[in-house]
Every structure is written in C-alpha cells, then in structure tokens.
Write a structure and sequence with these properties.
The structure holds two protein chains of two kinds.
Chain A lengths: L2 H25 L8 H5 L19
Chain B lengths: L16 E3 L2 E3 L2 H12 L4 H5 L22 H7 E4 L3 E7 L6 H8 L1 H4 L3 E7 L4 E7 L5 H10 L8 H5 L6 H27 L8 H22 L1 H12 L6 H20 L7 H18 L19 E6 L2 E6 L8 E4 L9 E5 L2 E4 L1 H4 L5 E3 L4 E2 L4 E2 L4 E5 L7 H9 L2 H5 L5 H27 L1 H14 L3 H20 L2 E3 L3 H8 L2 E5 L5 E12 L4 H12 L4 H9 L9 E6 L3 E6 L2 E6 L1 H5 L9 E7 L2 E12 L3 H11 L1 E5 L7 H8 L5 E2 L4 H13 L4 E5 L5 H6 L2 E6 L11 E4 L6 H35 L4 H30 L2
Parallel strand pairs in B: 17-24, 17-26, 24-25, 26-27, 27-28
Antiparallel strand pairs in B: 1-2, 3-4, 4-6, 5-6, 7-8, 7-9, 9-15, 10-13, 10-15, 11-12, 11-14, 16-28, 18-23, 19-20, 20-21, 21-22, 22-23
Classes of the chains: A mainly alpha, B alpha+beta.
C-alpha cells in the first residue's frame, strides 16, 4: 500500500510541471490576446515575392 | 444601391472610382488598394472581403512631424538600442482578421519593419523596426497611408503600462486549481465508508500534503481578500470580504490543528475549493472592454505637439513645454491646445466636441479662444493666454477627478448585507460556543469554529460577480458598455436623468434644411447643391444632403469666405450662399435660429432654415422615462428649440438653456445635494464636469473607440433608443441578486443547523459549500441570460 505514497509524489510532480507550464504561459503573455492567434494560424505563410518598384496592377 | 467599394464596402454612389476593373467609393480607398496591390498583398481582401477602413482625410501632411522630436520619440518607444526600436501603437481601426493579417505583414510594405504583432482585444500593434531604414514618423505615416491610423495621445506618453492585474489573477486561479485537485484526492478516502480504517501513516501523509498544498492558496491566491477586508475595516466598513477572511482563517487554523494532532485531514479541500470559486467569480466579473477607455481625461484629447513660432521660424514643441505668451500656429483641422488670443488669420472654430454644436463659430482678432476647439479653414496664429493645465475646460476636468473612486464601492448592497450577516454569524458562533461550554465543554470550540466555517459567505460573494458579470456581457452585446459591475447597481438607484442637448438628443451630423422663399426650379436647386458640394462647412453639407438632385453642375470661380459664405459661377450665373450679412449686408436679426441665405443671378431667392434633428425614438424614450424619473435638459445653446422640446419633455420648467460647462456641473451638484441619484447623459468635453459629478455618467458615441470624456458607460448612438430597456434591466438584475441572496442564506441555515450542534463533519462541509456556490452561480447566470433575451431587444 505504501506504493500509493510514491504514486502521489509522482502525481504531484507531474501536476506541478503543468502548473509551472501554465504560470510560464500566463507570464509570457499567451492569455493576453485570446482572439488573434485563432485567426493567425489560418493565414497563408507564403507571401508572393515582392517585385521592387513595380506599381503596375498585376493581372 | 450602386456598387460596393472593394476596399471598405461603402456604397460607391453614382460615380465609382474605377481602377483595375474594380469599383471604389473614393480615391482614398483606391490608393490603399494600389499600395497593397503593388506589394501583392491582395490576400487582405480575401481573408475578409471589404475589410478596409474609409478615412475622410487621407493626406497627413506635417501632422506627424512631432514624431521626429527626440523627446517624444523616446517616450513613445518601448525599447530602443540605437539600431532596433520597438513601439506599441493603439490603432482603433483594428476590427477583423484581415486587419491582423495586414498589420502583421507590414514588413512586406517596408523591409525596415522587422516584426509586428497585433493584440486584438486591446487594439494595439507592437512593431519592431530598424531605425536606419524607417523612422517612427515614417512608420506611423505608412500605417496612416493604408488607413490604419494610430492614435497617439498625451496620456500615452505619460504612463507606461504597469503589471497586468489579469495575469496575476490567472496565476492565482491556476495555483488554487492545482491545489484543489490534489487536496480533493487526499481527502476523498475519508468520505468513503471504511475510510476511517485507513492507516495512521496515510492520514498523516495525506494531512500534511494537504497542509503544504494549501499554504500557497491561503497566503498567495486569497491575499486580495484580506487586503480588501483590511481596507474596508480601516474605513469602518464591514464588507463581504471580512466574513470571507474570517472563514478562510478559521478553516485553516481548525484544519491545521486537526492535522497536527493527527485527528484527520481537516477541511482543507473545502478551503481550497472556496478560494478557487471566489477567484473564478472575480475573473468572470473582471472581464472588461480593454480597448475602451473610461478614464480618459483632457490629455488624451489634446495634441501631443504644437507648432510654435520663434522669431519668425516654425518649431515643433511638445505640448508640455508650451508656456504663457508663446506664439503658436494652428493649421486647418488642428486643435487649439490652450486658451489663447487670436493675433493673425481668420479663425473659424469648430467646437463640436466641446459643445456638440457642429457649426463652426467665427472669431475676431484679439478674441480669446478656449482650448478644445478645432480650426476650420486657413492657418491662424495665436498667443497663449493660459497654460494647458490652467485652461478653462481642463480645470473643470481636473476639479473633481478621483473623487468617485474613493466613494465607490462603499455603499453597495452586498456590503450592507454583509454587515448584518457578519454580526449575525458572530452572534450565532458565540451563542453556540457558550451553550456548549456549559453543556459539553469539549464541543464548545468546535461548534464556534464550525459556525464561522460553514457561514463563510462564498455563495453570497459569488452572487454579485456572476449576476452583474452576465449583465455586463448582455449589455455589451447590445451596444452598451459599462466600466465595471458597480455601475449596474448605481444605475438601479437612479431617480433623476439629466440630458445634455446638443449631440446627445440631437444628432451631430445630420440637420434638416427647409427652404423658405421663392419657389426654386430644378436647375436652381441643382446649382445650390453643386455649390454646397464644394464646401465642407457643416451647413453646406446639410443643404447638400437635403436637396434631392442627382447630378452636379460644373462650378467655376469657387470662393469660400470663412464665417461668411461661398460664391461661384455656375452655368454662367453668379450664385452666393451664406449668412445674412454676406448676402444682404445686414446682421442676422434673429439670433435664435440658423439661416443660410441664397442669392442667384441678381436677387435674393430666400433662405434655408437649418434645424437639428433629434435622435430616433427620442419622444418614445422620454415618454417612458418620464413616468419613473425626474428629467432635466441642459443645453449650452440658445432657446430656439425650447418650443420643439417642451412637448416632448412635457413642460418647460425642466429645460435649461444657455448653460456653461460649469453651470452644468453645479446643476448636477445641486441635484445631488437634494438627495437625488443623478444619471447624466452627455457627449462632449463641456459635459465632462457634470459627468464626473453625477452618480452615473454615460456618454453617447458614434464610434465607441473614439475619444469620449471620463464616464461610467459608453452607449453606441444607434442603441440610444434602448436606454429605457437598459435601465429597466438593471432592476431585474437586482432582483436576481436578491433571490440569489435568499438561496445562499438557505444553504447557510442548513449548514448552521449542523454547526451549532457541533456535528459538522468535513464531509458535510465538502458537499454543502461547493453545491451552494455552484447552484447560486448557475441560477444567477442562467436567469440573467434568460431575462436579457426576453427583455433586451
């Protein structure tokens, strides 16, 4: 039965790791803006290469 | 309906600007499209169609020249190491996914920009850029050129953001949640049949583990409650946090005692759960509208820098360095930053934001012009009479600011309840303790602490956050934004409503123009419209909008004489339009109305009588409000509209005209002295004093993100007709609070029944406390949601 104590300690360590992760995520500002990441992820990464000084409309 | 502008979605009218086979409403929108097109950024239009912003005046000129000033630049930048700088700009135009995309791809437009990041709820963009390739001024001008005009104000310069309270709260909730899950696990065996047969080692280990995990909750997560209770007691007020603090400490001491003496695992789970629920409630209530500012003062309205003339040369200086007797230059559309005397040029001051009146007022040389007005027309030169801080309007603003903060929160209903509540539980606790002292002294202390534990007003404390938090959200969905949840309770107590006239109950930008005089032919009407279309003067705009002629004639020799009128040749005919003095050479003899005279070819044809239009549904709202509230109207204008307003308000007795800003403030002060609870509804700087003085100040705004004076709430102008419903709804919200109070008292009675007998087991506490909290929260949230769907349209 004493194995339970061992399990509990592991449990606390695992949960504690998540707690530390959570605190880090809050502190690094991940909860400041709950909207823009949800749309940002959908943007296409590729931006067509810039043609310098071309002001002609692309057809 | 014509074509819709590809950029902003506005109706293009009869003559769309075409480019690349696409219709645009104006050249401004087309230019943005061209800029984006040149950089192959059409994706902007694909993410969200017609996402663009229409800007009336695209040409910024020297407007941002002050950003080249080292001392302003330094204050604005978050960070700068000489080569790379970072700046956070407030961009009120941010509204959709396309905005985020474009602002985060600014580097495509200018390679000097390294990185940009948008914070959507705050509507800010933080941008890192290379100083060598792009200056701060160029950056801001770039953003303005694609119509994302950053708003840079004085108060942004003065204060940098402090620590984020929301982050702290989240961390506190996280820690409490972590402890709760674990502690519940350790206490669980105790609640099961046979749990008491658990070996002594386990009880000990579980007990001490719970104790350890509870420590950060008691001393960190819950710390705000002790602080608030302490503050309350210092002001001799027993607020809701006093019994909470009492409960938390009793729980903690009692449980620690039980653990230390190896009697059991104590009530740690109830304690942690209690704190967790309370914090979640606080978080729910604390959701605010980050991009809206309710605290703005004159500093966010006035410009950051002014052009000063020193020995004939122009120099740009920060506003803070502006001194008395300085010679300043004010250009078209610039704000007058301080009370000054006109020394050169023709001043035509638009006080629309100060008074709500949109017709510019002409000023003569040597006349004193109050700060806050906007020059319309050519540049003028002025000599500063009073420094910014001492100017008439800013003084009014500074007078009482801060006063409300100290007063608020002291007399709320929950505090009154908690006063009696605390007294009652202390009485019950002591009676139970004394009773057991004589009957079974071993139970005396336990009964005493049990009462304090079970009576801890968790459910009571959660009622307000969840009821008002839900109400606030419901209001926000309907276009009524309030500063915090206290406003709801204050709104319910209101018995007097004071309206400002101009801009509040009349519309700023739309006026009725009625022609009085000869009958005009189609051609003549069209001529008048063509002339009016050439001027941006509000009266011209009003006339233009009131003539239903489709096409416009070509206008030659157009001339606009400030404060007088306009004249031009159309189809070879001379046409003049303007004041009576301009047309007839005589001064207007009726100061109580606004007339625009028309001269065509060789005779005076007549005049347009311009009248304000009232907000839609005004009569109905006033009618509804009349039965429940005392209504007053304050106006800085003359009495010309008394006859129109009297029937709406029912009597003339409560209509006051020719009120100066300080008159308005004194008036509200007087009403408050009479014991009235005053709701002030205004919109401009001249109401700022009265808004501050009132119990609840609301402003009406066409654009909620634009500047509004310090207030408790902002209501979208299109939602004005719902005002009565909002006020009525606060009453329903208060009823929900009262019912929730009764429910939580019932739970307390059940708990006390066990506690006074000295039979309160950890199991009962562990069941009763969460159930009471959850049921109260559910009741409050769902009933508000149901009611808001039914009552708010």
């Amino acid at each position: 039965m004493t194995i339970i104590i061992f399990l509990i300690i592991i449990g606390i360590l695992v949960a504690g790791a998540f707690l530390v992760g959570f605190i880090w995520s809050v502190k690094s500002g991940q909860y400041d803006d709950m909207y823009s990441p949800s749309v940002r992820v959908l943007f296409d990464e590729k931006i067509p290469e810039k043609k310098k000084n071309s002001l002609n409309p692309r057809k | 309906m014509g074509l819709k502008c590809i950029h902003c979605g506005e109706d293009c009218g009869k003559h769309p600007v075409m480019w690349d086979d696409k219709p645009f409403c104006c050249h401004g929108c087309k230019t943005v499209y061209q800029i984006l097109n040149a950089s192959e950024m059409e994706q902007y239009y694909e993410i969200q169609p017609m996402a663009g912003i229409r800007v009336e005046q695209a040409d910024v000129g020297d407007k941002y020249a002050y950003l080249d000033l080292e001392e302003i630049r330094e204050k604005l930048l978050d960070f700068s190491d000489g080569g790379v700088s970072k700046v956070s700009l407030f961009v009120p135009g941010i509204h959709c996914a396309s905005c985020i995309w474009l602002l985060e791809h600014l580097n495509t437009l200018n390679p000097g920009i390294i990185h940009s990041n948008v914070n959507f709820p705050k509507k800010t963009a933080s941008i890192t850029f290379k100083d060598e390739q792009i200056s701060l001024r160029q950056l801001v001008e770039l953003m303005a050129s694609i119509h994302y005009v950053p708003e840079i104000t004085l108060d942004q310069l003065d204060k940098k953001e402090g620590t984020d309270a929301n982050r702290d709260l989240l961390i506190k909730i996280g820690i409490a949640g972590f402890s709760l899950m674990n502690v519940m696990l350790y206490n669980f065996p105790e609640y099961l049949p046979g749990g008491e047969q658990l070996g002594e080692t386990f009880t000990k280990v579980f007990g001490w583990l719970s104790f350890l995990l509870t420590l950060p909750v008691v001393f960190y997560s819950a710390s705000d409650y002790y602080l608030s209770a302490f503050k309350g007691l210092k002001h001799k007020i027993v607020n809701i946090d006093v019994p909470i603090t009492l409960g938390i400490f009793t729980l903690f001491v009692q449980s620690t005692y039980e653990i230390a003496t190896a009697q059991g695992v104590g009530y740690m789970d109830s304690l942690v759960g209690l704190v967790f629920f309370l914090l979640v409630g606080k978080w729910y209530q604390g959701k605010t509208y980050q991009a809206l500012s309710f605290e703005r003062d004159y500093k966010s309205y006035f410009p950051v820098a002014v052009t000063k003339i020193v020995d004939g040369a122009e120099e740009i200086i920060p506003l803070s360095r502006l001194k008395e007797n300085d010679h300043i230059l004010i250009r078209n559309q610039e704000l007058i930053p301080a009370d000054s005397k006109l020394v050169k040029g023709t001043a035509n001051i638009d006080y629309s934001f100060v008074t709500g009146e949109s017709i510019p007022v002409p000023k003569r040389l040597d006349e004193l012009i109050f700060a806050g007005g906007r020059q319309v027309g050519s540049s003028i030169e002025m000599v500063v009479e009073k420094e910014v801080e001492q100017s008439y309007l800013t003084q009014l603003w500074n007078q009482d600011s801060g006063k409300k903060e100290t007063e608020s929160g002291l007399y709320t209903m929950v505090n009154k309840v908690s006063e009696y509540f605390t007294a009652a539980i202390l009485l019950v606790a002591f009676s139970a303790g004394i009773y057991w002292l004589f009957n079974d002294s071993s139970l005396a202390l336990f009964a005493f602490t049990s009462v304090l534990i079970i009576a801890c007003p968790c459910a009571l404390a959660l009622t307000i956050p969840f009821t008002f938090g839900s109400t606030m959200r419901a209001f926000g969905r309907k276009g009524f934004y309030i500063k915090n949840t206290e406003v709801i309770e204050n709104l319910d107590k209101i018995d007097t409503v004071v309206f400002d006239k101009t801009g509040t109950i009349t519309l700023n930008r739309s006026m009725k123009a009625k022609f009085i005089g000869d009958t005009l032919s189609e051609d003549e009407l069209q001529m008048i419209k063509s002339l009016a279309a050439n001027s941006s003067h509000p009266l011209s705009v009003a006339i233009k909008e009131n003539i239903e002629s489709e096409d416009l004639f070509e206008v030659e020799n157009f001339q606009e004489i400030p404060a007088m009128g306009t004249s031009a040749l159309i189809n070879g005919k001379r046409i003049n339009m303007g004041s009576r003095k301009f047309i007839m050479g005589k001064v207007d003899n009726d100061p109580n109305s606004t007339n625009v005279y028309i001269f065509i070819e060789n005779k005076v044809a007549g005049y347009f009588s311009i009248e304000n239009t009232y907000r839609e549904g005004l009569a109905e709202i006033i009618d509804n409000l009349k039965n429940k509230y005392d209504l007053y109207l304050l106006s800085g204008d003359n009495e010309s509209e008394k006859k129109n307003l009297a029937p709406i308000f029912g009597s003339e007795a409560n209509l006051f005209f020719n009120q100066s800003p300080s008159d308005k403030m004194e008036f509200v002060k007087k009403l408050k002295k009479e014991g009235k609870k005053v709701l002030m509804i205004g919109d401009g700087l001249n109401d700022a004093g009265a808004l501050l003085e009132s119990d609840v100040g609301l402003t009406i705004a066409d654009d909620i993100y634009s500047f509004s004076p310090a207030c408790e709430g902002i209501i979208e102008s299109s939602k004005f007709s719902g005002l009565f419903d909002f006020l009525k709804f606060t009453h329903s919200a208060m009823n929900v609070v009262k019912i929730s109070f009764i429910i939580s008292f019932l739970y307390n009675l059940i708990g006390l029944f066990f506690a006074v007998q000295g039979t309160l087991s950890p199991l009962i506490a562990a069941i009763l406390m969460p159930i009471s909290s959850v049921s109260v929260v559910a009741f409050a949230t769902f009933s508000i949601q149901y009611l808001s769907r039914k009552k708010l349209s």
